[in-house]
Design goal:
392 residues, alpha/beta, Rossmann fold, Arc Repressor Mutant, subunit A, 6-stranded mixed sheet, 5-stranded parallel sheet, 17 helices
């Protein structure tokens, strides 16, 4: 069984806070992790997608009061959004007796839906832990396993499938389920075919600047509708917007964010790419690698790190900037291949920004200086470096 990075974070949060929200897309392993925690202490698990479990909460205050000495795990909490007020009442009552931790673990698959509800009712009483698919730190550090993670993505059933074809079939089923069953739960009826086309277009344009007008024209919908659909995919933790870096440097900087389909396996499924051989000859290969690196580094970075990219109107750019909690600025260029070279624009950007450290993350595993102030480093080593940073 693969040890999840989120496990220790959830246990730490339960030790200090009354409620913990574990947030991640469907099928990333939230329930498996929660049940493993339940095995270590007296617990009650309720699946709120199950009508029988929802019916138990017809009078939630009465029912949950009977389990005051247990950790109550509430899976898919968005199914009963009015429950948060009851949780607040129970937490406050328990705090009056001096017990201030480990009361509720709530699981949610929609970031905005969960954060808004819990933020309204449980402010100061809840901690948040993000959980994504498998990341580079959770698998064997071999080149073969890294390629498997890149091709198949990190959803456990996809990564652990018997072969690439079975993995691709699982991801296609996952996409279809989201389009036909999951997404309609979170807002007005959205045509599944239109949303699938948009999702596929984002995969084709992985890592590109967001151009709502161009997407709207191709889909015969309004720019506002494109924005709303992308908002929804982002809230469901399927798409990420990376904002542009802004500072008063006297440069004309781009203002549009870059968009990434967060899981590389979903990128490849949307484009019908089965294996490494198919990906190697596909036009998306370079940007697929970039998105894979960006997602893994953002997961590994310390809490409260700010992420952006740098690009001027003349094309000077840096793929990823990290503004660390201690104020340091790290610049990261992403290259696929074993012999990375840097363009002139990267060096100009370094002169503009004067980052504390600069790295080139590439496909190999060796670590060495490329030029003065620039270090070449593998993805796993870079992720380990970031996750090992400690700030007071």
């Amino acid at each position: 069984m693969i040890q999840r990075q989120a496990l220790s974070l959830v246990n730490q949060a339960l030790a200090r806070q009354s409620a913990v929200a574990l947030i991640g897309a469907r099928q990333v392993g939230k329930t498996t992790l929660a049940l493993s925690i339940a095995e270590t202490r007296p617990s009650l698990y309720l699946d709120l997608e199950n009508s029988a479990d929802r019916n138990k909460l017809t009078d939630p205050l009465l029912f949950l009061s009977a389990y005051e000495e247990r950790l109550v795990i509430l899976d898919e909490i968005h199914r009963v959004p009015n429950l948060f007020q009851t949780l607040r009442s129970l937490i406050d009552k328990r705090r009056q007796s001096g017990q201030r931790n480990g009361r509720f673990l709530v699981l949610g698959s929609a970031s905005l839906e969960l954060l808004q509800q819990s933020g309204e009712s449980l402010a100061g009483r809840i901690a948040y832990v993000d959980m994504g698919p498998f990341d580079i730190r959770e698998i064997n550090p071999s080149p073969a396993d890294l390629n498997t993670l890149w091709i198949r993505g990190g959803f456990p059933d996809s990564f652990l499938a018997a072969n690439d074809r079975h993995s691709l079939d699982w991801r296609k089923d996952f996409i279809r389920t989201y389009l036909e069953r999951e997404i309609p739960q979170f807002g007005p009826r959205i045509p599944a075919q239109t949303l699938e086309r948009l999702w596929t277009m984002l995969a084709h344009n992985q890592g590109a600047l967001l151009n709502e007008s161009s997407l709207a024209s191709a889909l015969s919908i309004s720019s506002q509708t494109v924005t709303r659909y992308i908002d929804l995919l982002a809230d469901l933790l399927l798409v990420r917007r990376l904002p542009p870096f802004y500072s008063n440097l006297g440069k004309r900087l781009v203002k549009s964010p870059k968009t990434y389909v967060r899981d590389s396996g979903l990128v490849h499924a949307l484009l019908g790419i089965v294996d490494l051989n198919g990906l190697a000859g596909h036009p998306v290969v370079g940007m697929s690698w970039e998105g894979f690196v960006v997602e893994n580094l953002m997961i590994a970075a310390p809490a409260h790190t700010k992420f952006s990219f740098y690009r001027t109107a003349t094309g000077v750019e840096i793929d990823l900037l990290l503004e660390l909690p201690n104020g340091e600025l790290w610049a990261i260029e992403i290259k696929r291949g074993l012999a990375p070279n840097l363009e002139k624009g990267f060096h100009i950007a370094r002169t503009d920004l004067k980052p504390t450290r600069a790295f080139v993350v590439y496909s190999g595993q060796d670590r060495y200086p490329l030029s003065e102030g620039v270090e070449v480093i593998g993805l796993r080593s870079m992720a380990d470096l970031l996750s090992g940073l400690l700030f007071g």
